[in-house]
Specification:
Elements lengths: L2 H12 L26 E2 L12 E3 L4 E6 L21 E5 L5 E6 L7 E7 L9 E3 L13 E7 L5 E7 L6 E8 L14 E2 L25 E2 L4 E7 L1 E4 L2 E4 L2 E7 L3 E9 L3 E7 L11 E5 L5 E7 L2 E9 L10 E8 L10 H7 L2
Parallel strand pairs: 1-3, 2-4, 11-13, 12-16
Antiparallel strand pairs: 3-10, 4-9, 5-8, 5-10, 6-7, 6-9, 13-22, 14-15, 16-21, 17-20, 17-22, 18-19, 18-21
């Protein structure tokens, strides 16, 4: 079993610990410190061996295939795994206009890694780096750099690498980033979270849960739909997340579903609050990408519980006031007073 699985388990267990910096997990342990698209250009079916011999990306969109087998291990970056000895290949791109771009190797045949240098080779300080991404559907442990800002007049060197000593056939794609459509607007039957928009040095006195002193929660019954906001903000030199804690009580055990569409990359979960604060881990949790509905279903026993919603990371920043729609239900009863059709359409 590879280290990435252990690392993912640790991240989900600690994802709610306090953030002393953007790279630190947060809580105590949940403490928060229609133009026609041109066809893709086709490359020469292989990246170059080094930055000096990098394969040119003349225009976007760009698609290529190749292999890293037989090439040299020239470069490596930590994101977050160290010690790679994989062979790598290099592409270069010089945009003529400022752009946001996506770079990915989702359908490759091995465990890939991607990183980017701006103009020159800067070992240890890449412009961007990704090893394993949840944005790739299909095989696990593939790479995706999303929404990367590039500038006219710069040359970007994109390295296709691997985890450990992995190598093999790859698919390589570069696209102009297209923002996804936002989540549906707040439905008329929903209740409002009622929390002020966060700001620098914000103190959450609405529903910061065990992150607030004293602890404070939004009490809800279910089935229920809630429209809320969240974001990241600075407290001194540290980045914090606005974590929203919705408390509910079960008198009997049942299966409960939490469904969220957020206009930010989101972390949702169930927290057993029967013993009160502090709490150190989720009972169950999952993450989702912005504007894509995410669901979490768990069998919960009698007691006091929290449905938790927050940005899944401290960077890139989530502007305060970014919206989400959350539905908490027993997986059987539709949220009143809407119909099944409306509910399904909302999370389709």
């Amino acid at each position: 079993m590879r280290f990435a699985i252990l690392a993912l388990t640790l991240v989900l267990a600690l994802a709610v610990c306090v953030a002393a910096s953007p790279s630190t997990t947060n809580i105590a342990p949940l403490k928060e410190s229609a133009p026609v698209t041109p066809p893709p250009s086709k490359g020469p079916l292989q990246g170059g061996d080094t930055i000096a011999t990098a394969t040119l990306i003349a225009a976007l969109p760009y698609d290529d295939t190749g292999t890293t087998v037989g090439f040299t291990h020239d470069y490596d970056e930590v994101c977050p795994y160290t010690g790679s000895l994989s062979p790598d290949v290099v592409y270069k791109y010089s945009p003529t206009v400022n752009q946001l771009i996506d770079i990915y190797t989702c359908n490759s045949a091995y465990d890939t890694k991607l990183f980017v240098y701006d103009n020159v080779y800067t070992p240890g300080v890449p412009l961007a780096c990704n090893d394993d991404s949840s944005l790739c559907a299909g095989p696990a442990y593939r790479s995706y750099i999303q929404n990367l800002q590039v500038y006219a007049g710069h040359t970007y060197y994109i390295v296709v690498d691997g985890y450990g000593s992995a190598s093999g056939a790859y698919e390589f794609h570069v696209r102009v980033y297209t923002p996804p459509p936002p989540c549906p607007p707040c439905p008329s039957y929903a209740i409002q979270e009622g929390e002020p928009t966060c700001y620098a040095n914000y103190v959450d006195a609405t529903n910061g849960g065990c992150n607030s002193t004293p602890p404070v929660f939004s009490n809800i019954t279910f089935p229920k739909t809630v429209c809320g906001t969240s974001g990241t903000y600075m407290v001194g030199a540290s980045t914090y997340r606005d974590t929203d804690w919705y408390q509910f009580t079960l008198t009997t055990g049942m299966t409960v579903q939490l469904s969220v569409c957020a206009n930010f990359n989101v972390l949702i979960g169930f927290i057993d609050l029967t013993a009160g604060c502090p709490v150190s881990t989720f009972y169950a949790s999952t993450t989702g990408v912005a504007t894509v509905p995410v669901n979490l279903t768990s069998a919960l026993y009698p007691g006091t519980w929290v449905a938790f919603v927050a940005p899944s990371a401290w960077t890139p920043a989530t502007p305060c006031g970014t919206t989400y729609v959350m539905t908490l239900w027993d997986g059987i009863t539709p949220v009143e007073p809407t119909t099944w059709g409306t509910l399904k359409a909302m999370y389709r």
